[in-house]
Design brief:
By secondary structure, the protein is α+β, with helices and mostly antiparallel strands. It is built from nine helices and 14 strands. The chain has three domains: about 55 residues, no CATH class; about 140 residues, Jelly Rolls; about 80 residues, Winged helix-like DNA-binding domain superfamily/Winged helix DNA-binding domain (Arc Repressor Mutant, subunit A).
Length: about 300
């Protein structure tokens, strides 16, 4: 396997065009392993003969096809202490390891659909997932952007009722899937996990109340957008800065779906904010130049 991987790497990297020896650190595109090699090419009548001498191996993390650094075990996950559900005793996590199915998804993958019978839970390890509901006339409302550490499909898997919303990845994601039957058995055997589930469901309820308050009690689209931008500064740890920066990973259409308005309205509001020098766009980063004016918009 080692010789084959290095051979493939050298052939791909140099296209059989070099005749002089090449020394340097390279990374194999078929196994992801780093290796320092000496590659020399000798021209023959029948083509090119490649000689490879491996000098030093450096084992790199295994990457998925979507460029993710896969978390192999929940027990060694660095984010374990930061997530409500993941912060379980070792004995419970050992049991969880036996029933989970780790999967990598590309951007735009559908995890489950609103109205679908619950198959199980999806623990989001890496990436972000868009949670939305859709009306009969095709209008979409994004309720939340789920972050790493959240458990998706939890209430449906506990109650047995259909999924309340649709979950779609907006980044390449690693997800641990657990079948509903296995998850229910896991909860019966581990009381600590039941407490974590209750905490997560409570957090989801509080989040839903905040979203309803923001959408239902706001008087204008400008007020909703200003509140959303301020909320993002808090999530990104930028709220204390005089000029917070926000990485805009969502399109104007998706932002419109979050505040219940049209894409054209969001585009117009951003243009007005830029004209008044409240915000400034720098590539995909939005700089809030006048935080006081934005807060005034949010309370108008």
């Amino acid at each position: 396997m080692t010789s084959l991987c290095v051979f493939r790497l050298a052939a791909e990297e140099f296209h059989f065009r070099r005749a002089a020896p090449v020394m340097g650190p390279l990374r194999c595109w078929c196994c992801g392993t780093g290796v320092a090699v000496s590659v020399s090419f000798c021209r023959l009548r029948s083509g090119v003969f490649l000689k490879v001498a491996a000098r030093r191996w450096r084992f790199a993390p295994v990457l998925s096809p979507y460029g993710l650094d896969i978390i192999e075990s929940c027990l060694t996950c660095k984010m374990r202490a930061d997530a409500i559900f993941c912060d379980l005793p070792d004995a419970a996590l050992q049991s969880f390891e036996q029933i989970k199915y780790a999967t990598a998804y590309p951007k735009g993958a559908i995890l489950f659909v609103e109205g679908q019978a619950p198959r199980g839970i999806f623990v989001l390890c890496k990436g972000r997932v868009k949670l939305s509901i859709c009306s009969t006339d095709g209008k979409t409302l994004i309720l939340k952007i789920a972050e790493a550490g959240e458990v998706l499909g939890l209430s449906a898997s506990v109650s047995g009722k259909p999924y309340e919303l649709t979950a779609e990845t907006i980044d390449p994601c690693q997800v641990n899937f657990v079948k509903r039957e296995d998850f229910q058995r896991f909860l019966k055997e581990h009381s600590d996990a039941c407490l974590r589930v209750a905490e997560q469901l409570s957090e989801k309820y509080n989040s839903a109340c905040r979203e309803i308050r923001s959408l239902g009690l706001s008087h204008s689209a400008a007020e909703k957008l200003a509140k959303l931008l301020l909320e993002w500064t808090v999530k990104n740890g930028e709220s204390a800065k005089s000029e917070p920066r926000i990485k805009l990973a969502l399109t104007h259409e998706e932002i419109a779906q979050m505040i219940g308005t049209s894409r054209e309205t969001v585009t117009r509001l951003f243009a007005e904010m830029k004209k008044r020098q409240i915000v400034q766009a720098k590539g995909s980063t939005l700089v809030i130049r006048n935080k006081t004016a934005l807060k005034a918009l949010a309370t108008s």
